[in-house]
Design goal:
Layout lengths: L6 E9 L2 E10 L4 E7 L7 H11 L3 E11 L8 E2 L1 H17 L8 H6 L4 E2 L5 H48 L2 H21 L4 H15 L2 H18 L6 H20 L4 H21 L4
Parallel strand pairs: 3-4
Antiparallel strand pairs: 1-2, 2-4, 5-6
Helix pairs in contact: 1-4, 4-7, 4-9, 5-6, 7-8, 8-9
């Protein structure tokens, strides 16, 4: 299955006295690059969340936002952590020894200080399990989104490959026709200049001409590369980097076809091939 590196998922999960809110975004990147925006109460879970993400994704720039929204209740009262308050008093006193002109912390500053307000959530162990479960569900939803986008990319690539195959088939019958046309032109030229046709010289010139315009090897490699692209698209392994390499090889053969061209038709086919290959390359930049 082909996965796009672009995807999005948003889930929420109610827990005791609060709700966990998860948002995952993925965009294309050469490597796996994970960024976190976590609630202060959940920062310690970053390594565990990173491990879960790394186990599911191999490439892409991932943004993980996880918030903890506390439920409001008429009978619910906030509690202060006395130990955290005492520690804050000591820290402020020590800091003002070095910076006596600095202002004292306001009540708002103190209440915003991490750990001062006690949250009446479930136990730490339960919270960790709830977060892990939610992240797993979020990753599944993200992968489902990436799989849907990947299927669209796959169909676009296959459509371009079909057009490339049609162009390759268009070139094959042109070669014998070009040789015949060159032979007629050569015979007319020799007859005009020598008033006599030297069949041996014509045969030699035709051999040289046929060698110069021979693109059977290039056409065979184009066909082989197309088959390999299709095989990779139908495999379950990450495909982006391998497909990118094959686009380079396809482009190389298209360039060689153009350099050996002796007719408007083959030159046009070479240009059309390169346009299609570049269109495929743009699409596969977003494939994992």
């Amino acid at each position: 299955m082909i996965f796009s590196m672009t995807g999005y998922a948003a889930l929420e999960h109610p827990i005791e006295n609060a709700t966990l809110l998860l948002e995952l975004r993925a965009v294309n990147s050469r490597y796996l690059d994970v960024h976190f925006k976590l609630d202060e109460n959940l920062r310690s879970l970053e390594p565990a969340i990173r491990e879960l993400i790394s186990a599911q994704l191999s490439r892409g720039k991932i943004e993980c936002k996880l918030n903890l929204m506390q439920a409001t209740s008429a009978h619910q009262t906030e509690q202060l952590d006395e130990a955290a308050l005492q520690q804050l008093v000591i820290m402020q006193a020590k800091a003002r020894l070095h910076f006596p002109q600095s202002r004292e912390l306001s009540v708002a500053d103190i209440l915003r200080w991490p750990g001062v307000l006690l949250n009446d959530f479930a136990s730490d162990d339960t919270l960790v399990e709830d977060v892990k479960k939610l992240v797993q569900q979020g990753l599944q939803a993200l992968n489902d989104s990436r799989a849907r986008e990947g299927e669209k990319l796959k169909n676009l690539v296959l459509e371009r490959l079909t057009q490339i195959e049609q162009l390759v088939e268009k070139v094959k019958p042109l070669l014998p026709e070009l040789t015949k046309a060159y032979q007629a032109k050569l015979e007319a030229k020799l007859y005009e200049s020598l008033k006599n046709i030297d069949q041996e010289r014509i045969a030699q010139e035709l051999v040289l001409f046929a060698q110069r315009i021979d693109v059977d090897e290039e056409l065979s490699r184009l066909t082989a590369h197309i088959s390999e692209v299709k095989r990779i698209l139908n495999s379950s392994a990450p495909a982006g980097k391998r497909l990118d390499f094959l686009m380079q090889e396809l482009n190389r053969e298209a360039n060689t076809l153009g350099s050996k061209s002796v007719s408007v038709q083959t030159t046009q086919v070479s240009m059309e091939l390169k346009v299609l290959i570049e269109q495929i390359r743009e699409q596969i930049q977003n494939i994992e």
